[in-house]
């Protein structure tokens, strides 16, 4: 049984983010109204707890401030990060709604 407040929407959106003075790339595998899981094998520790995720949306990009919620590790590398939005924007909500409508 899933106790999540918001439904996760499966997706495949390429993103970038800047953390610890380094640029990273990843793929949003699922997204909700309050967060997302970004698959990336391109990380190094330590990892900042707050940063921005840059998401392409329509003809623009969204700079979404997030808080690191968890790091998913595999035996050989980091598989990804779970992040929670620190500030909800109208554009982000519109993007999530458009993804829901595609399902």
Topology, element by element:
Elements: E1 9-19, E2 22-32, E3 35-39, E4 50-57, E5 60-73, E6 78-85, H1 90-102
Antiparallel strand pairs: 1-2, 1-4, 2-3, 3-6, 4-5, 5-6
How would you describe what is shown here?
The chain is 13% helix and 55% strand. It is mainly β. The protein has a single domain, classed as Beta Barrel (Thrombin, subunit H). Strand 1 and strand 2 form a beta hairpin. The longest helix is centred in the C-terminal third of the chain and has 13 residues. The two termini are 22 Å apart.
What's a quick, concise take on this entry?
With about 100 residues, this protein is mainly beta. It has one helix at about 90-100, and strands at about 10-20, 20-30, 35-40, 50-55, 60-75, 80-85.
**Beta-sheet strand percentage?**
over 45%
Shape: globular
Kindly state the number of beta strands: 6
The CATH class label is Mainly Beta
* Cα radius of gyration in angstroms: 13 Å
Overall number of structural domains: 1
The CATH homologous superfamily is called predicted glycosyltransferase like domains
Keywords:
globular; 103 residues; 13% helix; mainly beta; six-stranded antiparallel beta barrel; Thrombin, subunit H; 6 strands
């Amino acid at each position: 049984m899933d106790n999540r407040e918001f439904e996760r929407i499966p997706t495949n959106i390429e993103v970038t983010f800047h953390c610890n003075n380094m640029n990273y790339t990843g793929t949003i595998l699922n997204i909700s109204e309050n967060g997302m899981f970004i698959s990336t094998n391109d990380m190094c520790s330590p990892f900042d707890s707050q940063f921005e995720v840059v998401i392409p949306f329509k003809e623009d990009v969204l700079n979404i401030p997030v808080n690191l919620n968890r790091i998913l590790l595999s035996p050989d590398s980091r598989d990804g990060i779970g992040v929670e939005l620190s500030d909800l924007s109208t554009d982000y909500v519109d993007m999530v709604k458009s993804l829901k409508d595609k399902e």
